[in-house]
Amino acid sequence: MPELPDITLYIEALEARVIGRTLASIRLASPFVLRSVDPKIADVVGHEVIGLRRMGKRIVLAIEPDVFAVVHLMIAGRFQWKDEAKAKIPGKVGLLAFDFVSKDGAEHGTLLLTEASTKKRASLHLVRGEAALRDFDRGGLEPLGSTFEQFKDALTRERHTLKRALTDPRLFSGIGNAYSDEILHRAKMSPVTRSDRLDDAAIATLHRATIDVLDEWIDRMRAELAGGFPAKVTAFRPEMAVHGKYGQPCPVCGTKVQRIVYAENESNYCPRCQTEGKLLADRSLSRLLKGNWPKTIEELEGR
Known about the structure:
By secondary structure, the protein is an alpha+beta fold. Helix content is about 30%, strand content about 20%. The protein contains ten helices and ten strands. It has helices at about 5-20, 40-45, 130-135, 150-155, 160-165, 175-185, 200-225, 270-275, 285-290, 295-300, and strands spanning about 20-30, 45-55, 60-65, 65-70, 75-80, 95-100, 105-115, 125-130, 260, 265-270. Strands 5-7-6-1-2-3-4-8 form an eight-stranded antiparallel sheet. A two-stranded antiparallel sheet has the order 9-10. A hairpin with a 2-residue loop joins strand 9 (about 260) and strand 10 (about 265-270). Helix 1 (about 5-20) packs parallel to helix 7 (about 200-225) and helix 4 (about 150-155) packs across helix 7. The chain is elongated and about 65 Å long.
């Protein structure tokens, strides 16, 4: 699922292309992608886009006079930009198209929403007014620009593992599976450490790691794009330290990256950097192996 750095780059790219442009039409290839009934599409088209913002992992287009188009990409949803009017919506993965024109009516471009999944979860909501828009706000703290006290309050508000706390949208905004792995590796903390067991020094370390990792990835992707439109948004990047790197060497110490799997999610971690050499119990394997489950790196390597 696109997270805070990815959404930030989408918004920057869209700001340069659609702010001040008129939304000429919304074409639906799948009727199920539109999840609202008021306002209608006819009430929205013909009006100017006046702003963009991120709300958690959602992208919000502000349209005059007081209407918002709220897009949630979910796991497999992606945007494509075409420098042509009414570009064709891709047959298998296309969900909808936003068509834009300049103020003088000249053709400008098309924003396509695609979803490469059999489960169509991406969505569009059209809403009136800031009050209605607030219904989509999960309340999580915006990590970038947050103070230590704000971060501490969010982290310790509920008793969770660090992995769950960082990815809970009610606690932190925009952080998901990928960047939580990278943040915890940078902070040298176990994903299963309880949030209520950290002292102020440890919380400060995690706070700094969160800001540094998110800022660094925004800067890295911004430099790669060089003003272009994000075309390959993925949670699996070769430069990442541990996310998606199961079985590969940790870039810090060389130990093989391990993982714990639960439901449809997994945590990737370095057992030497983050868990003092201990292997965390993977539910899918430790229950099967029971007493044969290795407890340390040395025991795993010995087998």
